[in-house]
Amino acid sequence: MQLFNSYDLAGLDMPNRIVMAPMTRSRAANGVADVLTERYYSQRASAGLIITEGIAVSQQGTGYLFTPGLYTDDQGQAWRRVTEAVHAAGGRIFAQLWHVGRHSHVSLQQAGAAPVAPCARRADLCLGGARRARPCRHQRTARARYRGSGGDRR
Ligand SMILES: Cc1cc2nc3c(=O)[nH]c(=O)nc-3n(C[C@H](O)[C@H](O)[C@H](O)COP(=O)(O)O)c2cc1C
Predict the structure, then answer these.
(1) Distance from the CA of 148 to the center of ligand 1, in angstroms?
(2) pTM
(3) I need a surface site. Which of 71, 111, 113, 151 has the fewest CB within 10 A?
(4) 100 CA to middle of ligand 1, Å?
C-alpha cells in the first residue's frame, strides 16, 4: 500500500490515501461558515478526503464559540458554497456532525440553560478546563434507560 495510490472508498474515488482529520477552527464569527471557510477547505482539496471541523447539529449541541453549525438555512447554504468550492478545486469533503452533549457550557446555551447529555453527569473537562465544567441536564434516551436499568456499569 502506498500513500499516494488511489483508493476506492465505497464508491468514492480518492486519488490518494491522505485523509484530513477534523479540526475545530473556531473561525465562524456568527456560527455560519464564511468565505474564509471556503478558502481554507478548497486550499486543501488535494487531500484524498477532507473531513470538516465538527459541525453542530443544533444550538443545544454547540460546544465552542465561533464554530459553524448546520441547522439553519443560512448555515446549509454556507456549507453548500464550501463543498462547491472544494469540488471545483477537485476535492472531496465529508461533514463531521456533532452534538457535544455535556461538553457544552451554560455560556453557549440559550438563556444560560444547563447542557443536555444522555445522563446528568458533569463533564470531567470542558473548554477552559475542568473548573469551568457545569452540571448538565439528563435527556431520557433509550441508552439512558438501559443504563438506568443496570445494563451498563458506568
Ligand atoms: C486544533 C484541533 C482541533 C480538533 N478538532 C476536532 C474536531 O472538530 N473533531 C474531531 O473529531 N477531532 C478533532 N481534533 C482531533 C483531530 O481530528 C485528530 O483526531 C487528532 O489530532 C489526531 O491526532 P492524535 O490522535 O495523534 O491526537 C482536533 C485536533 C486539533 C489539534
Answers:
(1) 32
(2) 0.85
(3) 111
(4) 14
